[in-house]
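Methods, example record. To illustrate the input and output format used throughout this study, we show the complete record for Ligand-binding SRPBCC domain protein family. The sequence lines were provided to the predictor; the line carrying structure tokens was produced by it.
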Amino acid sequence: MNTATAEHGVITEAGTIRFERLLPGPIERVWEYLVDPEKRRTWFADGAMDARPGGAFEYIWRNADLSEKGNDPVPEKYAKYAEHRMIGRIIEADPPHRLVHDWDASGTTPNEVTFELAERGDKVLLTLTHRRLSGRSGMLGVGAGWHTHLDILQAKLEGRDPPPFWRTHSRIEREYEDLIPAE
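The corresponding predicted structure is encoded as:
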């Protein structure tokens, strides 16, 4: 995958999608955008995080607020996610290189998200892997969601205005419909 541009996630096995982005460093700066609520809420979700193994975190999504571009209405099918919350636990933390946490622990098979950071000169390779997704619809929503959030993170770190979340997500979700095989 060419990480210099916003490439699509890659399905590495059933229920697993991986993304890579080459971001401006230093690595400590990118790490802060993962664990510091003030920085994280500018590209992904607000909420406290105890970034130690066993530590708790809460994600609070307000995706329409992620862009300065004005009106970005929530699509009807995602209306219940206009503000969405999730509580989880940190599984592994090795600052500033690796963060692993559960996802949707309320389900029968909790997902797992891994963020890995590796220095590449003055850049940082972010590899995000989301495991144990169930079904095509889960892959579509999560794939388009992570893709869009990572596009916003990249724009923020590069000092650019981020794309509007919901309009971008809708377009990217249609692209993932063509990329993710039907069940």
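Annotations derived from this record:
DSSP finds four helices and seven strands in the chain.
Residues 135-157 form the longest helix (23 residues).
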